[in-house]
Amino acid sequence: MKNKALYLVIILSIIAIIRWIVLLLKKGNTVADKTTAFSPVIYPATLRNDIRGSGSYNAIRFNRLHDGIDLLCTEGQNVYAPFDGTITRVTYPYGGNTRWTGLELVGDNGYTMKMFYVVPAKIGQEVKAGEVIATAQAISKKYGAGMKDHIHVELRKDNTEIDPSSYFLAEIA
Predict the structure, then answer these.
(1) pLDDT tens-place string over residues 20-67
(2) Which domains are present in the chain?
(3) 3-state SS record for the chain
(4) Is pTM, for the whole model, over 0.90?
């Protein structure tokens, strides 16, 4: 009986790995030129990794891949604009649950950033790189102490999803 359980775990693991590879190949991993787009003063930040999972781009999320990165933060921490643009709207990562919010920043440089688990400060306003645009929420209050507080960041360049890691993370810069 123990051997059957072990075989089942191995088979399910192999299926999960194959599924992840297929998703990764379908999604791709485009990186755009960032030579002048982002403020080097504000970032880099640190990626979230905890018992609830990895905050890496393309990390497995059940039946999909993680569309962004999770940057560690503390509740109430200031969040800064990484590039010049306009905060176009408030976003709600959990649909009708307005407790958890985010924002969308659209830049003149072709970049669009969505950031979740923040309280936006400047909706409908133009901002410069380095300006405070939000304060961080404590997402651990939703998921429990096993998940570290973080902000989720998704990035697009000319309407194509890209990996934001090299723009925000210290170990990749």
Answers:
(1) 555 545 454 443 344 344 544 456 678 788 878 888 888 887 788 888
(2) 31-168 (2.70.70.10)
(3) CHHHHHHHHHHHHHHHHHHHHHHHHHHCCCCCCCCCCCCCCCCCECECEECCEECCCCCEECCEECCCEEEECCCCCEEECCCCEEEEEEECCCCCCCCCCEEEEECCCCEEEEEECEEECCCCCEECCCCEEEEECCCHHHHCCCCCCEEEEEEEECCEEECCHHHHECCCC
(4) no
